[in-house]
Sequence to fold (316 residues):
Amino acid sequence: MENNYTRGLHELGDGLFTWLLPNGSWGWSNAGLVAGDGRSLLVDTLFDLKLTQEMLDGMKAVTSTRPISTLVNTHANGDHCWGNELVTGAEIIATDACAAEFDEMPPSMTQQLLSTEWGDPVVEEYMAAFTAFRFDDITLTPPSRTFSSELTITLDDREIHLLEVGPAHTQGDLIVHVPDASTVFTGDIVFVNGTPLWWAGPLDGYIRACDVILALGADIVVPGHGPVTDNDGVRRVKAYLEFVRTEGTLRHAAGMSAVDAARDIDLGEFGEWTDAERIVTNLHSLYGELDPDYVGPSLEDSMREMAHLANHFASA
Ligand SMILES: [Zn+2]
Fold:
């Protein structure tokens, strides 16, 4: 599938589909569709209403006879749930922890971040990537049913397993496993050819989430961002997380700041992924775990740091 990474609907087989949005960078996320005999389950909506409407229209060949009765949100980041209001009449399921942080970073706050006067052309250019999306017309539509640990959904005669794997990428991550199709939709536990990001940690939880996916032994792994993959793609994410833990812990012990560490670490093959500059935010999260008194940057300062690191990598 990696050579078939194009925008739109892709059939995975057995009544499963994914909607892909290349290139998988900030806000360009994937969704999934599982069809039963007379109903469907949607995994995630997209970052804004226009993108989500385009997707729902593109899924009509399936959903006109098998309407979406269940919407599952893998986590509370906007690029996975801000189109929820367009999926009318469906039950919306997420974890308790996802529901608890659902409005922590609402569309209005993102809009506000985008109208920040940065006074810095490097940051302005970096933040321009978000102008592809529209946030001022979104009504936050939270889950209507929540659970913790595990939940099995029966869609006609098909079983779908929701497994809580957070805290990992966020506090409330879940994955969607469809055993009869040997497929798992991972949300942002898995990024393919893009750099994973975690704002809070703990990192061990994120690594454990990768292990949960690997143990399922699914043939098809649909990531939250990037092309469809298999367990090799999950192993690459895990390798990156372990790499950041090892290299970051060394530099923390040596008294190096997260910003300096991010420039010092040789990313090797991971440097070829998009958004490699996320390592600085990941290091702040790691430092926060290593030292409970650590004070990380504000969201604005995180964006500044990533913008400058991206600029540094591009000119290196
Ligand atoms: Zn995402």
About this structure: Residues 47 and 82 are 5 Å apart (CA to CA). The chain has one domain: 2-134+141-315. Residues 29, 77, 79-80, 188, 224-225 surround zinc ion (CB under 6 Å).
